[in-house]
Specification:
With 163 residues, the protein is an alpha/beta fold. It contains seven helices and seven strands, in the order ββαααβββαβααβα. A four-stranded parallel beta sheet has the order 3-2-6-7. 37% of the residues are buried.
């Protein structure tokens, strides 16, 4: 059983991005979106016009906190060979019910990809807007970077994350 990463959120988090479960590279480095081909950090860099991909990971996380963006996953633990969501077995969900208490300024939740969005009923129970964003994973090759960027930009700017 693999264990996920701790949440990156605080009392200033306005928008929480929920992935499914960290890929192998992210688990090895203990960093969210650690695979170099994942578009997550590149998308934020383009939206915020910051050199995020060149920053040390700790500075990236500080930037997220300062801009009101949080990160977590729907699964706390699972069994999986490789990094594909389709290979997730025996998943144990994170307790998302306490998010409003942990993040009193939370305005919305955005699911990064379809596997995460399968748990939207849990995030919708928070009484906040819930979005399904295209996966930033390199496995999501059917969406171009530009198309992913446009979808992500719309949600982040709607909730003044990083403005």
């Amino acid at each position: 059983m693999q264990q996920g990463l701790p949440p990156v959120l605080d009392t200033h988090t306005r928008l929480l991005v929920l992935g499914s479960f960290p890929g192998r590279r992210s688990l090895e480095t203990q960093r969210y979106y650690g695979h170099p081909q994942n578009h997550f950090w590149k998308i934020l860099a383009a939206i915020w016009q910051l050199p995020l991909t060149d920053m040390p990971y700790a500075e990236r996380i500080e930037t997220l906190h300062a801009r009101g963006l949080g990160l977590w996953d729907v699964y706390a633990a699972c069994e999986r060979e490789g990094s594909l969501d389709s290979a997730i077995r025996h998943a144990q969900p994170n307790d998302l019910s306490g998010l409003r208490r942990l993040c009193p300024r939370l305005q919305a939740v955005a699911h990064n990809g379809g596997e995460s969005f399968r748990h939207a009923r849990h995030t919708q129970a928070l009484g906040l807007p819930v979005y399904r964003l295209p996966s930033t994973s390199p496995a999501n090759a059917s969406w171009s970077f530009e198309r992913k960027l446009a979808a992500w930009r719309e949600v982040l700017l709607q909730h003044a994350v990083g403005v």
